[in-house]
């Protein structure tokens, strides 16, 4: 069972929300390898607060950086060097949901990118897409990068407001499956996350 790596077409597109839905649905374990800033309100704590099952394990981040920037910059500001070999896949017999930082080409250091980490961990990607003006291009570039490296893609999750035109061109061009479509929630709560489990098929 390969781990699922939740990446997105950029930062703030809903990777944490989608991760929470998947963790709840699969009663999966969760790991955020790099947390940049917001340490008191980290993605791990957010997912933990949004799921209700008691089977999921939450692994400690490999890097907890104090500043909310790209990991390579946050690490430099904390006088830390991130090395790809520092990332050890947590051992589990359960499903494992791994959440990236930002999008695929976000740097961990001056050489390695999030996409290199995905390859090192031999994970299958779920790409979270949110529609905004410019998102078609960000989506196509992300898919091209994954295909170019022959990384397994489970499919796309469209998060938030729908856009028929954007969605149809992305699906026609990429031929990728849709794993889910999540509506914009009035508030992101445990109850809403549990309901969204039915919106994802994996
Ligand atoms: N479907 C949704 N309905 C309502 N709010 C949402 C939804 N998806 C995401 N949000 C909100 O949008 C914001 C950004 O989402 P989220 O934190 O999941 O993004 P991210 O991709 O994980 O960002 P990062 O790159 O910082 O990890 C959060 O405040 C989140 O609660
Ligand atoms: C701090 C933020 N919430 C994310 N964890 C990191 C986003 C890095 C984006 C870098 C970039 O694409 O320019
Ligand atoms: Mg997040």
Automatic annotation (TrEMBL):
Domain of life: Bacteria
Protein residues bound to substrate: 36
Main location per the UniProt record: cytoplasm
Gene Ontology terms: cellular component: cytosol
Active site: 32
Residues the record lists as binding ATP: 12-17, 43, 99-102, 183-185
Enzyme Commission numbers on file: 6.3.3.3
Pathway: Cofactor biosynthesis; biotin biosynthesis; biotin from 7,8-diaminononanoate: step 1/2
Claim: ATP-binding is one of the keywords in the record: yes
Pfam families: AAA_26
Cofactor: Mg(2+)
The keyword Membrane is annotated on this UniProt entry: no
Cellular compartments annotated: Cytoplasm
Single GO term (MF): dethiobiotin synthase activity
Keyword line: ATP-binding, Biotin biosynthesis, Cytoplasm, Ligase, Magnesium, Metal-binding, Nucleotide-binding
Listed HAMAP family: BioD
Quaternary structure, from the entry: Homodimer.
Protein task: Catalyzes a mechanistically unusual reaction, the ATP-dependent insertion of CO2 between the N7 and N8 nitrogen atoms of 7,8-diaminopelargonic acid (DAPA, also called 7,8-diammoniononanoate) to form a ureido ring.
NCBIfam families on file: bioD
Family: Belongs to the dethiobiotin synthetase family.
Protein name: ATP-dependent dethiobiotin synthetase BioD
Organism: Hufsiella arboris
Lineage: Bacteria, Pseudomonadati, Bacteroidota, Sphingobacteriia, Sphingobacteriales
């Amino acid at each position: 069972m390969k781990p699922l790596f939740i990446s997105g077409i950029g930062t703030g597109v809903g990777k944490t929300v989608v991760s929470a839905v998947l963790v709840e649905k699969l009663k999966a374990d969760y790991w955020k390898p790099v947390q940049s800033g917001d340490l008191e309100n980290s993605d791990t704590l957010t997912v933990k607060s949004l799921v209700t099952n008691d089977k999921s394990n939450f692994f400690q981040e490999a890097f907890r950086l104090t500043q909310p920037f790209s990991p390579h910059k946050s690490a430099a500001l904390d006088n830390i060097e991130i090395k790809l070999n520092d990332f050890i896949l947590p051992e589990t017999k359960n499903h494992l949901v791994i959440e990236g930082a930002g999008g695929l080409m976000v740097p961990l250091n001056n050489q390695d990118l999030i996409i290199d980490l995905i390859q090192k961990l031999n994970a299958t990607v779920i790409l979270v897409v949110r529609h905004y003006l410019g998102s078609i291009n960000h989506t196509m570039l992300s898919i091209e990068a994954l295909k170019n490296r022959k990384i397994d893609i489970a499919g796309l999750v469209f998060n938030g407001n729908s856009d028929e035109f954007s969605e149809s061109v992305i699906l026609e061009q990429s031929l990728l499956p849709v794993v889910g479509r999540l509506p914009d929630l009035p508030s992101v709560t445990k109850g809403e996350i549990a309901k969204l489990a039915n919106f994802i098929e994996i």
